[in-house]
Amino acid sequence: MRPALTLRRRLGIGTVGIAVVLALPLIVAVRSLERVHKTTLDLRNGAFAASLLIGNLRQGTDDLRSAETALVYVGTPETHDRMMNQIANMRTLSDSLDSFSLKTTSLNVRLALDSLAVLANEEYARSSADKHDAAEAVSTQWVRPRIGVIEQTIGAAEQLLRARSHASVNAATDDTATAERAAIVSMIIAILLAGLISIWLIRSITRPVFDLESGMHAVASGDFTRKLRVRPNRQDEFGRLSESYEAMANRLAQLDRLKAEFVSVASHELKTPINVILGYVELLEDGIYGKLQDQQREVCETIAGQARNLTRLVRRLLDVSRFEAGGGALECRQVNLSHFLDTLQSSFSVLAMQRSVQFQVNRSDALPREVRWDEDRMSEVVGNLLSNAFKFTPRGGMVELSATQADDHIQIQVRDTGAGIPPAQLPNVFQKFYQADNQSQANAKGTGLGLAIAKQIVEAHQGLISVGSEVGFGTTFTIRMPVRTDFRRTGQFPVVPAAALASCG
């Protein structure tokens, strides 16, 4: 039996193969680049620079003609200065021709420019005296012919430079043509081979890694039924990883079922003794077993308060277990949105005064009159968000509840000016039993179930809930809810029983 190609062997083979196929074209390319570099330097330092200078001289000649025409017809000091400046600029450019073995051209241009300077003064004298016809005669007989001589001289130099450049390029081309063809052919072969090696590596390594990554994401989100395309019988590291993944997923699924069963059973079993405790405490407070002293009454009130806290915890645990088991039925009906918000405002206004926190309720005028939600469940969600906001907002701070409409969704936001949540903890706030660090600043810690239940309820309505926070500035929870929750149309909440689906259509 052939030994399996392990991940290490695949990476080694791929690395060596790519190095080998790239070695030859790299050597050929380096040699070709050296020759091209030398040729480029010669052309840049010689012919190209000279050609650029010739181009500037041609442009200078055009500017000279323009300045001379203006001087003939507008004999002002400004046009005269423009003409003389252009002649001086042309002299400077012509002096640079000496460095490119164009001394004859440079001399001829300078002589013509010296003559033009004298003639320009003559033109200016006549034009400034409004003798434009006389100035034009000087231009026609003397000035323009000399400018033409300059152009011809520059043209001859340009042809000479073009011949030099052509000879240099031909020589460099003859030297590098073979190397360039070899480099191109070698590079094409190298690219094809490297591509084949890359495809092989992607198919044998990358795809299994992506498959394992998606499986891990599924497990992290609570989906333990995700199956991998990588088979456990594969004889390499991926096969062993796949085997370990399936064993882990099966075990986690089993533990999740056991946990849900335990929570459900424990919650049901705890309800009865808690109710019994509350019943006896109420009997004691009512004096059925004799009058209580003040200290005894305080103890009874403490017992009753803790028992009620246990009752709320048991109810939340039952809610979690029902939703996870597919029993979180919704009772959707027409809800007056204005009344919904008014009830929340009235309920939390007293708490705001007790805590010396400013409480604002903002609502858009474009809100629909009615929505189709489970009113009790949504009141629980928004109420929990508001309770948390007041819990973590110091005196003098502000809590804001706002409602707006965007397309076919209602957006509800609860914003506070509390301590905020660190960025690293934001992805975990909707997890069961998770409590952020800012809980330490509150008077009493919660159970870590409120936000998890809120997320389940919102998603059961086919809505979305998100959180944004900045440490030291506060936290904002955002809920996007459809105006109508229609499970029969979207089918996005599979765990809701059929009876609930029918009631929310």
Explain this structure.
The chain is α+β, with helices and mostly antiparallel strands and 505 residues long. It folds into three domains: 7-200; 237-324, Orthogonal Bundle (Helix Hairpins); 333-493, Heat Shock Protein 90. The protein has helices at residues 7-73, 77-95, 103-128, 132-220, 237-285, 294-324, 337-355, 375-391, 450-460, 487-490, 498-503; strands at 333-336, 358-363, 370-373, 398-406, 409-416, 464-470, 474-482. A five-stranded mixed beta sheet has the order 2-4-5-7-6. A two-stranded antiparallel ribbon has the order 1-3. Helix 2 runs antiparallel to helix 3 and helix 3 (103-128) crosses helix 4. It is elongated, with a radius of gyration of 44 Å. 24% of the residues are buried. Residues 487-503 have low confidence and may be disordered.
Task: Give, in spatial order, the strands making up the sheet with the most strands.
Answer: 2-4-5-7-6
C-alpha end-to-end distance: 61 Å
Structural class: alpha+beta
Overall average residue pLDDT: 76
Number of domains: 3
Helix and strand run: HHHHHHEHEEHEEHEEHH
Topology:
Elements: H1 7-73, H2 77-95, H3 103-128, H4 132-220, H5 237-285, H6 294-324, E1 333-336, H7 337-355, E2 358-363, E3 370-373, H8 375-391, E4 398-406, E5 409-416, H9 450-460, E6 464-470, E7 474-482, H10 487-490, H11 498-503
Main features:
two-stranded antiparallel ribbon, 505 residues, 7 strands, 11 helices, Heat Shock Protein 90, 3 domains, alpha+beta
